[in-house]
């Protein structure tokens, strides 16, 4: 007989069997069956904020690595200070204005004159404007004598002997020569005399076949006088132009020319002979003769060129009669047509030639040495005979 007690026991037994049967047929500890603790109010927002903060910190760290040139572990170590009192002048300039050929040519145009274009007596507006028109986006400055002094004090305050030499120069033309080297050494860019016209942009000066990150200096030939009496008119058989120069900061040629001028000026100052420098001495002292000698010295300097494997010294024979740009190491040498088109002698072609880049009117001759003026005016109107290029040696690219 089924009593209440027996019915209750049977019900409990049935429920127990059903529970055990259901549990044994369920997946054991599956990932989907795992229940995570419920998130407390506000905890999810805190977790997301923490993740965002960590992400921001990582991004900032990554950005810092990029700014540091890819160096992890904080910013790169600063260049240690050196005792410059024990350095030579050349070493001081190398330390203050390091040279990196892989950088871009700075977008500066430097010119000098007695007045700026804003002054009523400035008479080179047409020439000056061509440089701005051909070089949109460049910083174009016309520096007066007063501004030059303050600018150089800012740039060369750590090399006081350079400032002493500049201020000691007795002639304006000497300071004009020295300034172009100083500004290009410190800042780079283009220097060109105020009476020059930019025919084509400087972006065309370096041939397309030459990587610009392998060139640090662009120069042109001023004179290539193939005539018996060339010494009566020029100081060098091949003379490089210094009325237009393009360079990257710190180039060794500029470093050497600044060192040479500074040392010679201070030597003459101490000897009391600086006042004896006159117009006819300018070409040798700060002008194209000195400039040419230092460039040839650089081309044959074993510190920069492999002279052991060279076919011979690089001299004027390698450049006479050239009509296209030529590369020597990190220097581009342009033919006479590039910076002296239309002079109608020494093989120079006209202004519409593809290699004509800068036109020089020689209107600022009052600040040029008399010998240079005389040579250009005389040779331009003289019959020089047949111009004949001489044999050229191979110039290997270093």
**Tally of separate helices:** 12
By CATH, the topology of the domain at 90-360 is Spore Coat Polysaccharide Biosynthesis Protein SpsA, Chain A
| Strand portion | 5-15%
Unreliable residue runs: 24-76, 364-398
Radius of gyration from the alpha-carbon trace, in angstroms: 37 Å
For the terminal residues, how far apart are their CA atoms?
117 Å
Shape: elongated
Order of helices and strands: HHHEHEHHHEEEEEHHHEEHEH
Mean pLDDT: 79
Secondary structure: helix percent? 25-40%
* CATH architect. name of the domain at 90-360: Alpha-Beta Complex
- Major sheet size, sense and barrel closure: 8 strands, mixed
- The CATH class name of the domain at 90-360 reads Alpha Beta
Structural class: alpha/beta
Number of strands: 10
Membrane topology: Single-pass type II membrane protein; Single-pass membrane protein
GO molecular function, one term: alpha-1,6-mannosyltransferase activity
Family: Belongs to the glycosyltransferase 32 family.
Pfam family, one: Gly_transf_sug
